[in-house]
Structures are given as C-alpha cells and as structure tokens.
Please model this.
Amino acid sequence: MYISDLALSDFRNYREAVARFTEGVITIVGANGQGKTNLVEAIAYLSTFSSHRVSADAALVRAGAAGAVVRAKVMSNGHPTVLELEIIAGRANRARINRAPARTRDLLGVIRTVVFAPEDLALVKGDPAERRRYLDDLVVARTPRLTVVRGEYEKILRQRSALLKSTGGGRRVPGALMSTLDVWDGHLAAAGAQMMAARSALVSELAPLVATAYRSVSDGADEATIEIRSSLEKAEQRAAEGDSEAGQPPTPDPLDIDALTARLVDAMHLLRPQELDRGVCLVGPHRDDLVLRIGDLPARGYASHGESWSLALALRIGAFELLREDGPAGETPILILDDVFAELDMKRRARLASMVGEAQQVFITAAVPEDIPAELTGRRFRVTDGVVELEEEAPPGAGDNP
Ligand SMILES: Nc1ncnc2c1ncn2[C@@H]1O[C@H](COP(=O)(O)OP(=O)(O)O)[C@@H](O)[C@H]1O
Ligand SMILES: [Mg+2]
Model:
C-alpha cells in the first residue's frame, strides 16, 4: 500500500499542509525542529492512533488550535480509500472513511505502517513496558478488534488496582469488598487471557522473522531470540513449589483463552494477600515481558550499543515481514524510517537500505541528506517551519556517500 495524498490542519507545527506522494522512496529533509518527524507521525497516527513520541493526544494539536485534522488517501491493492481523523484535545477523535462518518476503530488496520526511530533503542534497553507496547501495537495492527480488549484491560486494571489500594494494605478486608474483588478478578482474567493468547500467537510467528532479520543486519555469529516471560507461569511455579503434593502439572496451552482465564483467576486468588498488602495487581499481561536474547545473554544490560541497534532494527523488520505476510500478495506495509540513518554505521546503513527496497513506500527523514544512502534518494521533500515543499528531482548520484 502507499499514501498518495496527505493533508494536515493544525497538526503539531503544521497549519495547513498538503503533499502528494508516489510509491517508492520519499525522503523528507530539513533542519532539526522543522517538522519532519511531525509529518511522518501524522501518517503513523492515522494507522495506529498512537505516536512513537507521546501518549497524550493534546500534544498533536497545534498550540492554540482547538483541534487537528489528518487526512490521507491510501492506495491499497489498487483501491483508493480516504481516511480522515479529527483530533480534538480532551475529547474523542472523530473519523471518516471515504467522507462518511465512521467509528474511529474502523480506521485501524486500513493503513499499515512500521516505524523505526531512534526511540526504538528503548525496545532493547528500556523497561518491559516498551516491549509490551511493541507487542500490543502489533497485536492490534493484525487484529483490530483487540483494540477494544486492550483498552478494556487497561481500564479494568486501573480500577482493580484502585480497589486494592483502597484497603490500605489492611489484612482485615470486609467481605463485601472481597466479593467485589472476585468480580474484578473475573473481568481482568477474561480480558487478560485474550491479550496473553494473542501475544503468544504473535511471538511464535514473529520469533523466526526477528532471528532472520537480526542475522542480516548484524555480522555477529550469535542468534537473536525472543520469548515471553509470563507472570502467570511464574506465579504457578511458585505455587507448585509450595505444594509438595502436586505432581508435575501438564504443560498448559498458551493459546487456550478459557484455560488462561481460569488460570489467571486461580493465580489472583493465591496472590490476593500479597496484592492487598502491596496494592497492586501482580499477575497478568501488564506484568509480562518480552525477553530478548543475543546468544545466551539477555540483550538488556549485556548487548553492546551496535548489537542493541541491530536488535531494535530486527524487531521492526520482523514486524514489517509479519504484516506483509498477513496482507494480500504484493502489498507491503508503509515503512517509516525517522532519523535513523544518522545513527547507524555504514554497514548497517547499507543493510537497511537493501531491505528498504522491499517496501512499496518508504518515508525517510534526515536532517542531513548525505546520511541517506545514495540508492535511496527518491522524491525529496523539504520541510521548513511547518511548510512542506517538493524539491526538484535529485540529480543522479546526488547524496552519494564517499
Ligand atoms: N502541538 C504543537 N504545536 C505547535 N508546535 C509544535 C507542536 N508539537 C510540536 N511542535 C513543534 O514542532 C517542532 C518539532 O518538529 P519535529 O517534527 O519533531 O522536528 P524534526 O524536523 O526535527 O523532526 C518543534 O519546534 C516543536 O515546538
Ligand atoms: Mg525528528
């Protein structure tokens, strides 16, 4: 797929901007702070409603304006679709598809994007929350209806945590509160089980793709592996250790939603005294992590800077390959490379460049055009203080790296 037209109103530092794009490589150049990232962020936001930079929508609306509008025409499988999203600070977004009002979530999945940005180093070096977000963004990109479940889970989690905290760590909790907690356990388990099963299914498909991508971006002999570390399994192991009667339990099916729901309820039951003590929900997808390893060592805390970059890149390339396999033959997600070439050494640049060729449309931003490998100078746009202009076609050889 590719975006053929983009129009922004009051989005970030853009008042009114329109741009017409082609398939292939689109480079966006301009000094820092001019709006390069803002432009690609608008495209990514239309695809996922989340930004690689902020969690609050208010920052997306131009300072002083009441609301922003992002509109794009996307060509997919030869068919045009016009998507429009109105972002109103402090209120629900409003959506249109082909000019007719639509539910915002119907927009999800229409444009598929994969963004790679310097922030992605946090996938490797940062907190588990970064990796959970990576997984869940992919889960909902592939299965848009799970967006509702994801939102529900977060809401239930907040409410159940508030309830646990309200007991003030007390041991003598009134019976009524205990039965209220039972109800919340059920809700949390039902939504949590769906997310856990979806993540498990995702990781088993993603793991070989990430391993392959890592092999091609790094020159190390070590394999990259990814694996979910489950708070549920940990709780179950603890419980089994404390129970000498128990034999070896059968290996549970990580994709069985009913079984996961029951297991989560059981685990919450066992953990309830600790949960009341600490005022936090101790088991569920919000306590899981995606463990990344290079060779036998966990990447976090052990990987070198270069290895970390390679692994972050491999996670994004893996996501790209997976979304591409999901889509119709010949269609690929839109690849967005925000300011990454400056961060990569020559070897990784060249490898990334060769992979970029697989995408139908690629947006590449850079402050210094020379950082973009020569073979990738496609149509070039210049952004200056929230104004986008098409530059003349680059002469052959321009942007060559010495
Ligand atoms: N909501 C907003 N309203 C007005 N300006 C904004 C808003 N959000 C960001 N900006 C401005 O956008 C600029 C950063 O744009 P960005 O796309 O990140 O730059 P770069 O070209 O370096 O990628 C900054 O000057 C910032 O102040
Ligand atoms: Mg930027």
Summary: The chain is about 40% helix and 20% strand. Residues 36-37, 338-339, 365 surround magnesium ion (ligand 2) (CB under 6 Å). Residues 179 and 185 are 10 Å apart (CA to CA).
